[in-house]
Design a protein that fits this description.
- By secondary structure, the protein is of the alpha+beta class.
- The chain starts with 8 loop residues before the first helix and ends with a helix.
- A hairpin with a 4-residue loop joins strand 2 and strand 3 (66-73).
- It is 61% helix and 17% strand.
- It has a 3-stranded antiparallel sheet, with helices on both faces.
- It has 5 helices and 3 strands.
């Protein structure tokens, strides 16, 4: 009775009334057809109005007209399973980000190198300015990718404030 916050069997009956109809129907159907049910998880509302996840195992005694069973509070286990699942999802996102960062870096390095090489080929100021801008953008992008990779690996680095306005303006000026 303590698990549900009730003190009397009447209070516990009130709590059992909060079991969703579909769960109750499933329990009774299984008991009727198989005579027993094991580890059927249901959500109940405790007497203090909080929810609990419980695992029900029981046996039907039709000749005696009652069900004998055991309820185990699995709320904490469910909470820990959900927390572990979230951690696994975050880890998967980190692996995905790492792969994308590597691919992006592999695409940016040739852009940076080409911009540097082409600066020697073109003599006019407009071409040099555009190639410098392309090279700087590629360099900043490579640095950003390296920061993402360091974060995914859990490497602590120097934290610096960056004014995005100046980065954007510098890269847009041709």
């Amino acid at each position: 009775l303590e698990m549900f916050g009730g003190k009397t069997s009447e209070e516990v009956k009130q709590i059992f009334a909060t079991i969703p109809t579909a769960d109750r129907d499933q329990i009774f159907f299984t008991l009727k057809n198989q005579g027993t049910i094991k580890n059927h998880e249901i959500t109940i509302r405790r007497f203090d109005k909080t929810e609990a996840c419980v695992s029900f195992s029981g046996t039907l005694f039709p000749d005696k007209g009652y069900i004998e069973g055991v309820l185990i509070d699995v709320t904490e286990r469910k909470r820990l399973e959900a927390k572990q699942l979230r951690a696994q999802r975050i880890e998967s996102i980190g692996v995905l980000a790492s792969g994308m960062a590597h691919d992006l870096k592999n695409l940016l390095v040739p852009v940076k190198m080409a911009a540097e090489l082409l600066q020697h080929k073109y003599e006019d100021q407009k071409s040099k300015s555009m190639l410098t801008s392309i090279g700087l953008s590629a360099e900043q992008s490579i640095n950003l990718v390296q920061q993402v990779l360091a974060f995914v690996r859990g490497v602590e680095g120097d934290r610096k404030s960056t004014r995005l306005n100046s980065v954007t303006v510098n890269n847009l000026v041709c």
